[in-house]
Amino acid sequence: MAAGPRKPGDGDPRREREGGLATEQRPKTERPPRFKVVLYNDDYTPMEFVVTLLEQVFRKGPAEATQLMLQIHRGGRGIAGVYVLQVAETKASQVHRLAEQRGYPLQAGVEPE
Ligand code: TYC
To answer: Which pLDDT tens digit goes with each residue over 5-36?
Structure first.
């Protein structure tokens, strides 16, 4: 029997359903996973430095940066931002590099959202 090109309707009805609309309906809009950049409190990093870092690295406005710094100061840690993995890791590295340049022990971590 000659095997010509397969057309819709000439196959196994189970396969027909699998290849049909039912499996095509989910739009391909899956988001990549996101990661939190967490800043930790310590006793030595100056408040003003943390505020400036939140403004420059995490693009916070002055009021939000100040509130977040105080929240970290009082609560021990806080979320500076949420990003795709590569961006989160870059920002955590920037925190460490800038703090190290000034001799401050400020620590940042990356956690799944
Ligand atoms: N606790 C620091 C101080 O009193 C300020 C500080 C805030 C440090 C937030 C780190 O992530 C931090 N100077």
So the answer is: 444 434 344 444 444 455 566 678 888 999 99
- 64/55 Cα distance (integer angstroms): 9
Mutate to test the pocket of ligand 1, among 37, 58, 72 (most ligand atoms within 8 A of CB): 72
Atom of ligand 1 nearest to the CA of 78: 11
| pTM of the predicted model as reported, rounded to 2 decimal places | 0.78
pLDDT in tens, 43-64: 999 999 999 999 999 999 999 9
Where do the domains of the chain lie?
34-112
Residue 106 phi, psi (nearest 5): -50, 130
Pocket of ligand 1 (CB under 6 A): 39-43, 45-47, 50, 69, 72-73, 106
CATH code of 34-112, in short, is 3.30.1390.10
Calpha distance 11→59 (Å, rounded): 57
